[in-house]
Amino acid sequence: MSEAQIRLSGIERVFHLGDSEVHALSALNLTIAAGEYVAVMGPSGSGKSTLLNLLGLLDRPDAGRYFLEGRDVSALSPEEQALVRSRRIGFVFQSFHLVPRLTAFDNIALPMMLAGVSPKEREVRVARALKDYGLEDRAGHRPEELSGGQRQRVAIARATIMEPAMILADEPTGNLDRATGDEVVHLLEGLNSRGVTLIVVTHDPGIGSRAKRQLLMEDGQLRHDSASTRVNPE
Amino acid sequence: MRAPDLLRFASHAATGKPLRTSLLILSVAIGVAAVVVLTALGDGARRYVMNEFSSLGSNLVIVLPGRSQTGGFNPANAITGTPRDLTINDALALQRGGSIRRVSPIAVGTSEISVGGRLREVMVAGTTSQYVEVRHLDISQGSFLPEEDWGRAAPVAVIGAKVREEMFGALPAVGRLVRVGDRRVRIVGVLASGGQGLGMNTDELVFVPVALAQAMFNSNTLFRIMVEAKNREEIPAAKAQALEILKIRHEGEEDVTVITQDAVLATFDRLLSALTLGVAGIAAISLAVAGILVMNVMLVSVAQRTGEIGLLKALGATGRDIRLAFLAEAAMLSLVGALAGFLLGQAGAAAIRHFYPSFPAYAPDWAVAAGLFTALSAGILFGVLPARRAALLDPVQALAKR
Ligand SMILES: Nc1ncnc2c1ncn2[C@@H]1O[C@H](COP(=O)(O)OP(=O)(O)OP(=O)(O)O)[C@@H](O)[C@H]1O
Ligand SMILES: [Mg+2]
Description:
The structure holds two protein chains of two kinds. Chain A has helices spanning 48-55, 78-88, 104-115, 119-132, 148-160, 178-193, 205-210; strands spanning 6-17, 20-32, 37-41, 63-68, 71-72, 89-93, 166-170, 197-201, 213-218, 221-225. Chain A is of the alpha/beta class. In chain A, strand 1 (6-17) and strand 2 (20-32) form a beta hairpin. The two termini of chain A are 30 Å apart. By secondary structure, chain B is of the alpha+beta class. Chain B folds into two domains: 3-52 and 266-400, no CATH class; 84-254, no CATH class.
């Protein structure tokens, strides 16, 4: 592979809380190739979510550069970043984040609607997604009428409907019981097996160990990367 | 985002909170309805007055004795002292004016009318046969004064509807002999009720030939001379001719006042139009208040939907998409409110017309257009701030808030 899909170099992210500074991420270097399956683990407050937000272009680093598919995306304007999010990145959240007043169908279609895909095309693609995720008979249901597992499946269908290059999942099983959680993980792994880069933040060692590569975060730094023999110094 | 999707998304968001949305629509609707109803009242009053005046005879020019005060102090007048009176010969001379169609002199005084033991005080107006055409009066029985030499004091009279009622009751009046003052006159006609004159209701008038009235009151002056111009365009010419003719007859002294119906009408028109504009302005303030309400509700809505806004950003929405979605929602609410208010206001005006059929309560087009426009622009203008706030939300923090 000539160029890594994701390359972070010298990333710093500092939050100011009154007089004190919190280094949510510091001196972070990371490369991830297309199609990788990465689990991000570490104690609470270690910077996992902050890292994922940066990768998803929801947040900007205070220093350092982020290359996505060879392009420095940390320098893009907000509108250009929105376009990258729309075409290349899919998000799955712990609390699903479905729009309560919209049906499963409309929630799944939302990214396409925002991207200006024609209603006809949306119809076809959502119908296929509903079928793929076993939600055909739930198309007209609103989130409150769905179980947790069904909601997360709707969310995954939504994250994949634009056929992104990577899926970023922040504790996708955190609000689900074990059986349903496993089901969701299998779905995500299925996507990865078809070539989508999968980056999952998780507290669950069982899920983390399933990934082909584990990143261990601590105090905003990468403590351990299973893909490299080298352990970051203090 | 495509425009139809944007509108559907915005309307979905609005209908998702039916109570909030309907209250907002109501507030805008009340503002627009207020504009429509109040201007309908104001403009209705203007039309009402216009109608009343033009029923007097629209091409009317009125000649009064004496110089009007409007010209300011004129030393020439001060020296000459009392102005000359208007006479029947003055009125006759006015008939020569090229733009003048009809002339009708009026002499007035109060007297008593009596018949069969009934007695009543009345205002007696001496005039000529043409008066009925000049003033567009309707005759209910008999005919108006006969056409004859103005100097002849034929012993005839035409009475108003109320005078007839009080003097004769159910009995026929035409052909009867009555006493007016010290004269015995025969009634030749009765006027239809409701005829209106400048400050005179014809219902309580008794018309006699002008020479008879002057003889009765022992005077040869006229109260005024009614002149009818050939048409609307010739009113100024008729006015000028009347002034010119009388100036020559009064030895070069301009000692009469000529007023036109148009001038009186224009004054009332201006006055009542200003009134309408005033109430429209007051009603428009309620629209501004509605606009502020739209802003508040939209700000609350942005706060409530923070999580959703963060999500939309994560899914690829640009700041512009979000701004437009919120603006579209505000615009939609004010549009629906404006239309509802328009219907409500028109219904209100229709109700006024139903209960007061003689009152033409129609809201003028400009007021309706201004009301709708103000409602829409207030909604959009006050929607800008909430929409901007939504667009500027930080997605990470927005998503964290649930
Ligand atoms: N908006 C913010 N303002 C201030 N501090 C923040 C903000 N977001 C994160 N932090 C801080 O940055 C650090 C990393 O936070 P982050 O959310 O990335 O942790 P995490 O590893 O995801 O934790 P958890 O496992 O609990 O989700 C924490 O110390 C947190 O308090
Ligand atoms: Mg986290």
